[in-house]
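From the methods appendix. Each design record in this collection lists the discretized structure first, followed by the designed amino acid sequence. Records were kept in a plain field format so they could be parsed without special tools. The example shown here is representative of the layout used throughout.

RECORD:
C-ALPHA CELLS (219 positions):
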C-alpha cells in the first residue's frame, strides 16, 4: 500500500512511522514523500539517526520502546513525545531529569490491558492507584495513553482493548486538570489492526511493516 492510501485509511488519526531497525536512508525517503512523524524503540539507535538526519528541520521524533531509567537523562528533550512511560518510578526519574535540564516533556502512559507478563505498562488498577502521583510530576505533561494489545490476536479480537483504553482515558479525564495534562491522545493500532483502532478513537497509529516492509533482524 502506498503512503497516501494508508494516510486515508488512518484518517483522522496521525500516522507515526515506526522506523526501528530501519536505516536512516529509508526514513529520509519517507520524509521526502511528506511523512514527518517517526517512532523509534531503542534510545542509542534513535539518537544516532537523529544526528544523521539533523538536516531535516521539521522531523518529529517519538520514543515508543521500553525505556530503562538509566537512559532517562538521554531522552528528555530529545523526543517530541515519549509513548512508553510504563511505571511510576520511570516517570519520577524523567521528571527529575527535566527539572535538572529546565524543561517540560510530553509523555503518554503505557497501559497493559491484557495483563501480559511479557509486556510493559500499567495495569488499569495500578494506573488508578498511581494517577495522583503521576499527575503531580510538574515537569511532565501527560498527553494521553498508549497500548499494545496481544500480538497473536486478529483485528476483531483486539477491538475490546482499544475500547477499554478509550474508556479508561474518559474516566481519568474527570479527575485531571486538562490544562496541564490534556489526555487528548490515544496511541493504539499497528500495521495489522490500525483501521480497528481508528474506529475506536485512536489519534496516533504506529505503523512499521506496512510502511517500510519487513524489519531487518536486531543485530
Ligand atoms: C514495532 C512496533 C510497532 C510497529 O509494528 P508493525 O507491526 O511493524 O506496524 C508499533 N508499536 C510498537 C510499540 C512497536 O514496538
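DESIGN:
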Amino acid at each position: 500500500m502506498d503512503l497516501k492510501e494508508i494516510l486515508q485509511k488512518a484518517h483522522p488519526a496521525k500516522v507515526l512511522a515506526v522506523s526501528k531497525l530501519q536505516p536512516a536512508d529509508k526514513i529520509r525517503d519517507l520524509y521526502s514523500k511528506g511523512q514527518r512523524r517517526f517512532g523509534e524503540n531503542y534510545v542509542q539507535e534513535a539518537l544516532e539517526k537523529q544526528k544523521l538526519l539533523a538536516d531535516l528541520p521539521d522531523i518529529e521524533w517519538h520514543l515508543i520502546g521500553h525505556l530503562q531509567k538509566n537512559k532517562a537523562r538521554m531522552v528528555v528533550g530529545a523526543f517530541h513525545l515519549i509513548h512508553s512511560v510504563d511505571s511510576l518510578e520511570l516517570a519520577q526519574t524523567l521528571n527529575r531529569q527535566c527539572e535538572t535540564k529546565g524543561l517540560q516533556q510530553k509523555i503518554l502512559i503505557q497501559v497493559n490491558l491484557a495483563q501480559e507478563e511479557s509486556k510493559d505498562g500499567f495495569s488499569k488498577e495500578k494506573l488508578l492507584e498511581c494517577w495522583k502521583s503521576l499527575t503531580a510530576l510538574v515537569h511532565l505533561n501527560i498527553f494521553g495513553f498508549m497500548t499494545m494489545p496481544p500480538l497473536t490476536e486478529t483485528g476483531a479480537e483486539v477491538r475490546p482493548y482499544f475500547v477499554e483504553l478509550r474508556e479508561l482515558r474518559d474516566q481519568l479525564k474527570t479527575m485531571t486538570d486538562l490544562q496541564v495534562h490534556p489526555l487528548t491522545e490515544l496511541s493504539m493500532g499497528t500495521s495489522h489492526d490500525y483501521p480497528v483502532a481508528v474506529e475506536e478513537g485512536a489519534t496516533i497509529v504506529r505503523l512499521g511493516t506496512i510502511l517500510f516492509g519487513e524489519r531487518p533482524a536486531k543485530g
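APPENDIX NOTE: The mean pLDDT is 95.
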